[in-house]
Amino acid sequence: MSGTFVGMPAFPKAAHEAVRDTTLRANLKHATHTIRDKRARAVAELDDWAQLREAGKQIKDHTLRHLEHYLVQLEESVTAAGGVVHWARDAAEANRIVTELVRETGESEVVKVKSMATQEIGLNEHLEAEDIRAYETDLAELIVQLGKDRPSHILVPAIHRNRGEIRDIFRREMGSWGRPAPEGLTESPAELAEAARLHLREKFLRAKVGISGANFMVAENGTLVVVESEGNGRMCLTLPETLISVVGIEKIVPTWQDLEVFLQTLPRSSTAERMNPYTSTWTGTTDADGPQAFHLVLIDNGRTDALADEVGRQALRCIRCSACLNVCPVYERAGGHAYGSVYPGPIGAILSPQLRGTASEIDASLPYASSLCGACYEVCPVAIDIPEVLVHLRERVVEGGEATQRGTRVTLQPAKGHAVERAAMRAARWAFTHPAALGAGQRLAARTRRLHPRSLPGPGRAWSATRDLPRFPAESFRDWWQRTNGGKDTAK
Amino acid sequence: MRVALFLTCVNDTLYPDTGRAVVKLLTRLGVEVDFPAAQTCCGQAHYNTGYRREAEPLATHYAETFGPGLAAGAYDAIVTPSGSCAAMVRELYPRMGERARAEGRGTALAAALAPVVPRTYELTEFLVDVLKVTDVGAYYPHTVTYHPTCHGLRSLGLGDRPARLLAQVRGLELVELPGAEECCGFGGTFAVKNADVSSAMGADKVRNAASTGAEVLCAADNSCLMHIGGTMSRLKVGIRPVHIAEILASTEQEPQA
Ligand code: SF4
Fold first, then answer.
1. Which of A179, A232, A270, B104 is 20 to 30 A from residue B71's alpha carbon, by CA?
2. Cβ contact, residue pair A466, B199, below 8 Å
3. A57-114: per-residue pLDDT in tens?
4. Is pLDDT of B41 > 60?
């Protein structure tokens, strides 16, 4: 994935700052609670939601199981429609391909449709280093780009910003990227939207190259699909002469008809709409209409490694609706940046350590960035059991074991820093398989209960900093049971 | 009806009152309760922290402790006053057996677990589904708000069973908890590994509970109550945590505080 996040501190440290940022917490709480309530209402309207969810899961699982077949089919149909397909093993390869494609057009500017795939590979930064300027045209992405910020949500990348902050960014930055913000811009949503519209219009009309991702790719006819709310994507897909779409290989669906399921579940899960305002589809090229050159860059970047993992592979079903972020109590407090990846929240916590491996500090901490409450699984429209994958990845972190990296089976060593915990777990396992030892430990603890501190040393300190420990009882239940013969011998 | 009480390590060690309440309640309802002394811990903390291999012997130990009694007809079910431990047994034990098999370690674990898994019940589930009672004859003259813990809510699907039980308790006034379905932030080792986020979640839960004006926050899991109660005691909000078993065990003759 992108180099942008290299050197990110582990999740708990990054979250420590976020939890103390009261503006951030208020922004996040307001935004996520609003959207989660709306989603629940939009989903409740459909009486076949459970079947749609199951169908989405089945279609994705089937496609992933036969991914090779569908990729070949997709390449054939895209080529037949006049497009060119490029294959990229990793981020570096994808960036190189896109850069060359832009160079061939002789242009040094591109307009962009909001896309997770290009963020994942750090395309904008790469293009900038190659003297090509990429303009984001999605409103929230524009705010992030102008604010020299990082996105913090899949769908609403500027969710961590409030209106006042956005106005300040527009006033300060728009001028150096193109058309400046109007004089006396206020924080009224209509004025902010109008300022963005004018700023972007200039770019759409000038651009010769557009870069997009895609929500779906249909194998049978080579059609790509983008669903969006603002219409900026459609401008980028139709106005430029050259269109380059960068898409993860897991975005395939076999047939046009399969879209029926996802075009119902995706908008309701993401923006709580019955249907998204703009659904754009494009298939190769057509004479004298739309882009005259179309390139599809298919990226792997860790996906086939994830596919090799029996438990983890379900993460590839994800349709990036962001419903799991909006219900996640941890995301709500920690914010998107703490996850150190373009994929934040519950899905990020299972996707990033699979795509990038668990070697770095941040990636090893992500599987633990959850209380396993299960709210994410409950809302996921393709039924990804996120808690199951989290626990599976925790195991990889603390115990090591078999995994696939860059196509090769490897045996991972346990991550550093878990030796004390592992010893404690083993000791506890021993005590719990020796009931007499457990009873003796309880009696010792009961006898010394007056000496117990109200706060803990060592790793336990984090607990007792904000919470009082329970008082130790004078007698365990098992001792009471024995002493009183199951409560029969004495009233007490 | 005879049952084996699986009290769980947390309740046995830290909350013996809950265990006594379960015994009192079930006995009052005509159920004979046994406490197999070899029982210890379901292994949830191990499993959820990533130590599945360490959790396996505990699962086996659970099967060995409760399996023979079930097979011999010494009891009809295993009952536990912990939603998360019941979820561990019912949802995750089968998964552990399946993983062991997929890893080429045979079907021994799955076979050992098979008889105990479907006959393990969380307390409120046992009362409503097996005993088919909602009025347990309890008396508890307090204002109570109910927190549905995540495992009870989502893994076990307890639904409104606890609320139906509480609704029949004489003297009890049940008030709705805002944001009830949100996690309290305990999450086992999560509370230590991500203490800041966990505390923030706990504080919000406690503020919501305090806003109801209830005297008591009740739940069907002492692990969550330990976290919530520890936060309440620190924030000094004037509301206290009580396990639902203690409310249901309370009667006019022997009222619980
Ligand atoms: S994991 Fe599920 S809920 Fe989360 S973004 Fe992906 S599809 Fe949506």
1. B104
2. yes
3. 999 999 999 999 999 999 999 999 999 999 999 999 999 999 999 999 999 999 999 9
4. yes
Long-range contacts of A91-95 (CB under 8 A, 24+ apart): A91/A1, A91/A2, A91/A120, A91/A121, A91/A122, A91/A299, A91/A301, A94/A121, A94/A123, A94/A246, A94/A297, A94/A299, A94/A301, A95/A121, A95/A122, A95/A123, A95/A126, A95/A127
Task: Provide ipTM, 2 decimals.
Answer: 0.96
Burial of residue A257, with CB atoms counted within 10 A of its CB: 0-12 exposed, 13-18 middle, 19 or more buried: exposed
pLDDT of residue A6: 57
Residue of B196, B199, B223, B246 to mutate, interface with A, max A Cβ within 10 Å: B196
pLDDT exceeds cutoff 60 at A491: no
d(Cα A20, Cα A2) in Å, to the nearest integer? 27
Identify the three-state secondary structure at position B73: coil
Percent of chain B at pLDDT > 90 equals 97
* Rg, C-alpha atoms of chain B: 18
CA–centroid distance, A324 to ligand 1, in Å, is 5
Taking Cα atoms as reference points, which of A270, A280, A203, A202 lies closest to residue A245? A280
d(CA B62, CA B106): 19
Among A491, A379, A439, A188, which Cα is nearest to B41's?
Answer: A439
**Helical H segments across A147-284, by residue range:** 163-177, 189-206, 232-238, 259-270
User: Atom 6, ligand 1: which residue's CA is nearest?
Assistant: A318
Q: Indicate if ligand 1 lies below 6 Å from the C-beta of A382.
A: yes
Q: Which whole number is the average pLDDT over A342-363?
A: 95
* Helix H or strand E segment including A334: helix A329-334
- What's the rounded Cα separation, in Å, for the pair B24 and B55? 31
What span, in angstroms and rounded, lies between the C-alpha atoms of A423 and A418? 9
For chain A, the C-alpha Rg in angstroms (whole number) is 26
For A4-43, what is each residue's pLDDT tens digit? 465 678 999 999 988 999 888 888 999 999 999 999 999 9
Distance (Å) of CA B2 to CA A39, B76, B78: 45, 6, 9
What pairing do the DSSP bridges indicate for beta strands A223-228 and A278-282? antiparallel
Helix (H), strand (E) at residue A247: strand A242-248
The CA angle A197-A202-A206, to the nearest 5 degrees, is 140
Q: How far is CA A380 from the centre of its chain?
A: 12
DSSP state of A58: H
Ligand 1 centre distance from Cα of residue A460 (Å): 33
φ, ψ for residue A368, nearest 5 deg: -95, 0
- Would you state the pLDDT for residue A385? 98
Q: CA distances (Å), A368 to each of A345, A388, B8, in order? A: 12, 12, 24
Backbone angles phi, psi at A281, to 5 degrees: -125, 145
Q: Cα A488 vs. chain centroid, distance in angstroms?
A: 57
| Total number of residues shown for chain B | 257
Helix (H, G, I), strand (E, B) or coil at A402: strand
Between chain A and chain B, how many beta carbons pairs sit less than 8 Å apart? 196
